[in-house]
Specification:
716 residues; alpha/beta; nine-stranded mixed sheet; eight-stranded parallel sheet; 31 strands; elongated
Length: 716
């Protein structure tokens, strides 16, 4: 970068040798993990809101016990626990009192209304168990707990089937056609009571949960649910909810939607909403049980200026190599990384923290699920043992904490490579990296932090691995020393490791983005002469791309020279592997080119930043691919293809260049001549020239600065 301390550049080779001597993990086999301070998520202006869980159904099951409720609140929301700061409260519909088909002990949710002979009254003593846990979570959370209210089903008496578990036909709308306003009124009335009577700030309201599915059928053994068709039905519900919120003074609460079960369904459901419904919601909530179009959903949210939450997921998946109790923990860790990096979501919320219960006597005549086999996959982070009045923790709990305890609300999620998630806490100058190793062998990593202008001297390390009996649970490992460009480490087999680096700083280049118009861009022809031409790489839309073929290229003529801060690129989504071995070249005159970067591996989706650029004025930037068949193990195509979604350029026309004593914006022998004349009293220097001449920043200009400038010229 233009303002780097060039003395540090002179010491690069020495530092590299020293690093190799100190850190045995720094070998050619080490995986390079590159972290960029410039590639943060864009959703919610890049601010991460936090981690959380739904309270249903587990809070409904344990809330009778103050002891279990307090334990759970501290374990999940407390400072010594997971430090969650989001709770999603389920406003139960309340099933017909004559029904007895929900046999799962935790999911028979009470509603707040009583229906008798056509008359509706509110019972504010209802749902005391879930509410008990919520109050204790608020007390345990050291920051303001974010509370979202959501609904699985309307009350039974306004459903077509007369059952809150769903419709007699699970693919047909179950809310009565003339009761959309009644359902919205019910939700708003409950939310108003929570705020005005119980003093709970309702941050957001979502009236539907996984509405466009065929899961919700009448007389289910499991839970409440209600089908809404995409388009008009979902739009009508949102508009009625907005009106009810206004009537009840809830305008400060966010209206969110639509909590579809999968990513791809969420995209189609949002697109099908009416313009009025889209305008009514401020945030898209999505579940990630299915679908894969994370980048597309992120771009959809950004294009419509919506926030985006991953509001529910869990599962019985496993990962790792003969990982035992860590297998479920590794699966959860990879899902958290995939969602947060792929969606760029501002919050990640688990379905429910406790999914299994142990109780010899059962509950309300129903049998509890019992202890799961933690060597395999299972839902939830912990198990409630009602017989012994305790919460049993699992390795999934500790894996979750490797993220939630250290990546805190207010941080920015950064792009990082490999199986990692990275966050920058700018308020506290702290960088947090969570790395997951699913291999049965240890894995050496080289963490590249060279894009930061400063990093602390040491890295704190916390790790979870092994089993519950004698494994590691948030174990503090010996700190690692850093060099100026990062650090080296080794990931234990089947482990989740968190690295914390303090005193990090970087140069803010956001204000220096150079506007690129289509007339500044030329390139090779796209595949089959399609509309995916080279100018798609500068249209500001990550969902479009240049579909270049073999020997393809893009050239950007900035029309005048700039001192570059960085070149940013985003590979074509779904075809990131085609970027490996591609090159960026720069030129001042369009004739003489210098290669500044080769993509070393398959990049992740989203933007990547190149900050090692020449310290001279650049007018031309070229992106191109090698000729012939790919020479790497990632790209299996027959020929290199020039696929890229976006290119951004950052720079400044006029800057003070260190060592540029004569002020011509270039480093040359004339700078030595000018400095010599100054030192012999032949001429004077301006304040700017003096600043450029004082290489070691000691406030003096003398022979030391003279020698340093000579060395800088040798390095050019």
């Amino acid at each position: 970068m233009n303002t780097k301390n060039i003395i540090a550049v002179m010491l690069t080779s020495v530092m590299a040798i020293t690093s190799a001597m100190i850190y045995p993990g720094n070998t050619s086999a080490a995986t390079i993990i590159t972290v960029s301070p410039y590639a943060s998520t864009q959703i919610n202006d890049g601010i991460f809101e936090g981690w959380g869980t739904s309270l249903c159904w587990w809070a409904n099951r344990i809330g009778y016990s103050d002891s279990l409720s307090e334990q759970a609140a501290e374990l999940f929301f407390g400072e010594s626990g997971l430090r969650m700061n989001i709770a999603r409260y389920n406003i139960g519909g309340g099933d017909d009192p004559s029904h007895n088909h929900i046999t799962r002990t935790d999911s028979d949710m009470p509603g707040y209304t009583v229906y008798q002979n056509g008359n509706i009254t509110y019972d504010w003593s209802a749902d005391s168990r879930q509410r008990n846990v919520l109050f204790k979570a608020i007390d345990a959370c050291k920051t303001d707990l974010i509370v979202e209210m959501f609904s699985n089903s309307p009350p039974y008496y306004i459903t077509k089937s007369g059952c809150t578990s769903g419709g007699t036909d699970s693919s047909v709308n179950n809310l009565k056609d003339d009761c959309y306003d009644d359902f919205a009124e019910y939700i708003a009335c409950v939310c108003e009571h929570f705020e005005k009577t119980w003093g709970i700030n309702v941050q957001s309201i979502d009236p539907m949960n996984e509405p466009y599915t065929n899961y919700w059928s009448a007389y289910s053994k499991k839970q409440e649910g209600c089908h809404f068709d995409t388009g008009k039905s979902e739009s009508d519900m949102i508009i009625e909810m907005q009106s009810a919120m206004k009537r009840h003074g809830l305008e400060d609460s966010i209206l969110s939607g639509t909590d579809e079960t999968g990513i791809d369904v969420q995209i189609s459901a949002y697109k099908a909403l009416s313009s009025a419904a889209k305008n009514a919601i401020s945030r898209i909530d999505t579940h990630t049980y299915g679908g894969s179009k994370r980048t597309e959903l992120q771009q959809l949210a950004l294009s419509d200026s919506k926030n985006l939450w991953m509001s529910e997921v869990d599962g019985s998946g496993t990962a790792g190599t003969d990982a035992g109790q860590m297998s479920a923990a590794l699966w959860l860790s990879e899902r958290m990384i995939t969602d947060c990096r792929g969606l760029g979501c501002s919050a990640w919320v688990l379905w429910q923290a406790i999914d299994n219960h142990i109780c010899s006597s059962g509950y309300n005549g129903k049998i509890d699920s019992g202890m799961p086999d933690t060597e395999k996959g299972y839902w939830g982070l912990a198990v409630a043992d009602h017989d012994n009045n305790k919460i049993i923790l699992t390795k999934k709990y500790y894996a979750f904490g490797q993220f939630s305890r250290y990546i805190r609300p207010g941080s920015k999620i950064l792009a990082s490579s490999d199986n990692t998630m990275t966050a920058l806490d700018e308020k506290n100058d702290r960088l947090v990296i969570v790395a997951v190793n699913t291999s049965g062998n240890s894995k050496d990593i080289n963490v590249d932090l060279s894009q930061f202008s400063q990093i602390g001297d040491a890295v704190s390390v916390v790790r979870t691995s092994g089993n519950m009996l004698d494994g590691e649970n948030w174990k503090e490992i010996s700190p690692i020393k850093t060099d100026k460009d990062g650090f080296n480490s080794s990931l234990l087999a089947n482990s989740v490791t968190t690295y914390i680096i303090d005193d990090v700083e970087y140069k803010d280049i956001s204000a220096n983005e150079i506007s690129i118009s289509p007339d500044m861009v030329t390139g090779s022809s796209p595949w089959k002469n399609s509309e995916n031409v080279c100018t798609k790489a500068v249209d500001g839309d990550l969902s479009t791309f240049f579909d270049g073929v073999g020997d393809g290229w893009i050239e950007i003529n900035l029309k005048k020279g700039y001192f570059l801060d960085a070149i940013a690129y985003a590979p074509r989504s779904g075809y990131e592997y085609r970027s490996m071995d591609s090159m960026f070249m720069v030129s001042s005159d369009g004739q003489n080119w210098e290669k500044v970067y080769t993509v070393p591996d398959k990049p992740s989706s989203g933007f990547h930043y190149i900050t090692s650029v020449p310290e001279r004025k650049i007018q031309y930037i070229r992106y191109c691919v090698p000729s012939g068949k790919p020479q790497n193990s990632v790209n299996k195509d027959d020929v290199y293809c020039c696929n890229i979604a976006e290119i951004k350029i950052y720079g400044d026309e006029n800057i003070s260049l260190q060592g540029d004593v004569n002020g011509d914006m270039f480093l040359s022998a004339e700078d030595i001549t000018t400095l010599s004349s100054y030192m012999f009293g032949i001429l004077n220097l301006s304040e700017t020239q003096e600043k450029c001449a004082d290489i070691n920043n000691d406030g003096k200009i003398n022979i030391i600065d003279f020698c340093l400038i000579k060395n800088m010229l040798v390095l050019i």
